[in-house]
Amino acid sequence: MRSEKPEAEEFAEQYGVPVEAARDYLARMAALDGDEQRFLAEIIGSQVGPVVELGAGAGEFTGELLARYLKPGQRLYALERLETIAQKLRETIRDDRLEVLVSDSRRVPLPDGAAALVISRVALHDFVSDDGDIAAALADCVRVLAPGGTFLVYDKIADGFGAVERESAEGRMERINVQLAALEGKRCWGLHRTADYVGLLERLGLRDVRQRLLPRPDRPGYVADLKRRLDQARPGYAKRWGDGVHAVLDSFLAEADGIPNRALPLAMVWGTKPGC
Predict the structure, then answer these.
(1) Are the CB atoms for 153 and 268 separated by under 8 Å?
(2) CB under 8 Å to 148, separation ≥6 — which residues?
(3) Which of 53, 66, 233, 245 is the most interior residue, by most CB within 10 Å?
(4) Residue 59, domain member (yes or no)
């Protein structure tokens, strides 16, 4: 049964923060969501052909694409590399415009020039591969993009920080993904700056690369909540990555309370595939 408490009171209770702090944060997030929707509508709304979403996962953004941004009859190909997650996505979102493809970015099962837009949202900083060559991993996504089509990357960035791991608990947290990937002999692309994303799209051969920055408000209670969630996740992490997980998590937990709770900003970076 849905709670009848105001959203700010629910947030304050869940994260152990004052109601006023919760109310201020939620108001700032609403403004950010409004900016995000306007910017995405501007970029996505100009596209009329099929859209490819990289790393669909549980489908939160997939649902937003279908509900807010895509036109009637506009096709959406959602890529997810794990069959179990892909099947859940098919069962969760029932829309004739959606086709879920079991694939990663290196082997997109679509013909050349099939898509008007390829989009990655808050995913590339977690991208894990054997060699760490993210440009090579995304090259096939450019292949399926039609001439004149748009490649849009939307992700967390380290802009505005000198030493992000000392100035932001969230920034320090992002190192964990890199360390966990290393435990299985792989490389995680990790947290980068807007200029790195611009350079990436330029290396992929995209033109007219543009960018927009979206500052995020600091979330009250972030550090305490993150420590609780990591502690709960520890057994599952150890099962997957082995006992090396404990040193990774213990190092973060020992430092977390002394690191400011500054949120990482977001950046949209997009470019156009040259014509023939």
Answers:
(1) yes
(2) 272, 273, 275
(3) 53
(4) yes
Residue 248 lies in a domain: yes
Cβ atoms of 178 and 190 closer than 8 Å = yes
**Number of structural domains in the chain:** 1
Burial class of residue 247, CB neighbours in 10 A (0-12, 13-18, 19+): exposed
Strand ranges across the sheet with 115-121: 98-102, 76-80, 51-54, 115-121, 145-156, 266-272, 207-214
Cα–chain-centroid distance for residue 130?
20
Kindly state whether residue 267 falls inside one of the protein's structural domains.
yes
Instruction: Tell me whether residue 1 is in a domain.
Output: no
pLDDT tens for the 276 residues of the chain, in order? 455 578 999 999 999 999 999 999 999 999 999 999 999 999 998 888 999 999 888 889 999 999 999 999 999 999 998 889 989 999 999 999 999 999 888 889 999 999 999 999 998 998 888 888 899 999 999 999 999 999 999 999 999 999 999 999 999 999 999 999 999 999 999 999 999 999 999 999 999 999 999 999 999 999 999 999 999 999 999 999 999 999 999 999 999 999 999 999 999 999 999 985
Write down the pTM of the prediction: 0.92
Query: How far is it, in rounded angstroms, from Cα 187 to Cα 129?
Result: 6
- DSSP of 159-195: TT-SSHHHH-HHHHHHHHHHHHHHHTT-EE-----HH
Query: 72: helix, coil or strand?
Result: coil
Residue 188: give the domain boundaries.
7-272
Nearest-Å Rg of the Cα atoms of the chain is 20
Distance CA 106, CA 113 (A): 16
CATH number for the domain spanning 18: value is: 3.40.50.150
- At residue 139, what is the residue type? A
